[in-house]
Structures are given as C-alpha cells and as structure tokens.
C-alpha cells in the first residue's frame, strides 16, 4: 500500500468539512519538518468558518507532532492528487486536470495559508510546425544509437518498467519529489494503457536502455461535453539528464504534436507544469490558460 494511502490522522467537522493528515511519510523539504494536509472536502453548505476550524485543528495536530510547516492540499505526496486551481481563463477543464469549487483556495487563505508553489498549464496552437534546428539534434542522437518508438501496449508492464526507470532519475530534483516503490508505480499507472493512442505516447531508448518518454492523450473532456476533439493534452515529458541527451525532450514533444496533427488535432495543452520547470521553454508560442497553487502555513 502507498504511503499516501496510509493516513496518519483525520480531522472531521461532521457534515461540513474534513481533511487527512500525514507527517510520518511525507516529501522532504529541508530544513522544515513537513506536515501534509490532503483529502480535503467541504460540503455544499460549508462556509469559510467551517474550513477555518478544520484547518486550524489540523495545524494544531501537526504542530503537536513536531511539524514546522503545513502544506496542502496534497494527498500524501505529489504522486497523488495535489494543488488547487487558482486562476482560470476561458478554456474549460481538460482531461486529467484537477478541479474544485472556486471558493476552496480562498477559504484556505482566510485560514492563514499562503501560496508556496505555483504551477500552470499553457495552450499551443499549430501542431504541424517543425523546428528546423532539431534535424541536426536528431542526427546527433541517432548517431549515438538513440531510437524513438511508440509505447508497446502488447508489453505494457515492461514499458512501465522503462517509464519508471526514467521517472525516478528525471524527477529526482523536482520540488517535493518523493521516491516511489517500483511496484507501487506500476499499480498506479497500469490503467493508463486504455488512454494511449498510437503516436502520442513515445519512448526513447539508447542501446536498448530507456532515456526519455512523452505521455499525451486527446482531450477526452471535450468528447464528454459533446464537442469535437481538437486538443492534445501533454501530461508528462521526461528525459535522463546529461549533455548526451540535450534536445531529446524537444524532439519527443515535436514528434508527439506532429502525430496529433496527423490525427486531426490542432492544439496542445502542456499541462500542470511547475513555474520553474524547464519544460515551459519547449512549447514555443504558448499561452497560459490555468494556474494552480500549493499552499503552506508556518506552525511555529
């Protein structure tokens, strides 16, 4: 069972609001001793005062447990659901995006929480465009023996092993990264096979060893709204660090977006990126459409 599921405590205001707490197995954030608040729920009839009571009780509990900083909303770690939507443009909700009532982050701020980490999603138009500079980059990578292919749904368990091997290295320096056991990762993402479309989820290998991947899907929320699906959602893009693989991320992204264009899609959403994420430089003329916030409150 994942650490995120092993709740250390719960705080409940019956019929109004509730949260879960973690402090034993939480993301590292030196020099703080972190306490995490997640599984936040507020009933339709709840108000700011109800939420303040629950969050103050949660913070008091974490303080007694030795925590110096409370962070939320986060369901234990960043492998699980976390962040609030804190700004929305005209673009409606897209596939794999978190959502919550607009008042929730305002209630957290009223309870003394302040923004700690900021994230965003951006929209890119014109998926057929090619960057001529990448031809030389691809020639260099191909001369090293790098190949790029579709994720093989017929061997999806093995493909998840490859993706895990890249993720645990590529994301290691990310803010609030928490190591995840290999079997837990496989359990979380086994169901993703049903979302994969040819050409949109790609794996890069160097001498048969995984070195990069991109995971993207059509925006299924458009279909649920009865709209024509014209948008690609780029959820995850990763490569191993090092000069040898410089430019690989751009090549994976361009190939994915060109495949999406061939399928009739005309736009791409680069989803849920940290404000300091290097991926924000990969999207060309990207327009920000959403912001997300992870909040914190000092407990000392």
Explain what the structure shows.
With 300 residues, this protein is α+β, with helices and mostly antiparallel strands. It has two domains: 3-118 and 294-298, Aminopeptidase, CATH 3.40.630; 127-265, 3-Layer(aba) Sandwich (Aminopeptidase). The chain contains seven helices and twelve strands. Strands 1, 2, 3, 4, 5, 6, 7, 8, 9, 10, 11 and 12 form a twelve-stranded mixed β-sheet that branches. Helix 1 (48-64) crosses helix 2 (103-110) and helix 4 crosses helix 5 (182-189). The longest helix has 17 residues, at 48-64. The mean pLDDT is 94.
Instruction: Tell me the number of structural domains.
Output: 2
Q: Spell the H/E element sequence.
A: EEEHEEHEHEHHEEHEHEE
SS-derived structural category: alpha+beta
CATH architecture level-2 label of the largest domain: 3-Layer(aba) Sandwich
Q: Tell me the fraction of residues in β-strands, as a range.
A: 25-35%
How far is the N terminus from the C terminus?
A: 32 Å
So how many helices? 7
Describe the largest sheet. 12 strands, mixed
| CATH class call of the largest domain | Alpha Beta
Work out the helicity level: 25-40%
Q: Which spans of ≥5 residues are poorly predicted at pLDDT below 50? A: none
Instruction: Please state the overall shape, judged from the principal axes of the Cα atoms.
Output: globular
From the alpha carbons, calculate the radius of gyration and give it in angstroms.
20 Å
Q: How many DSSP E strands?
A: 12
- Estimate the mean pLDDT confidence: 94
CATH topology of the largest domain: Aminopeptidase
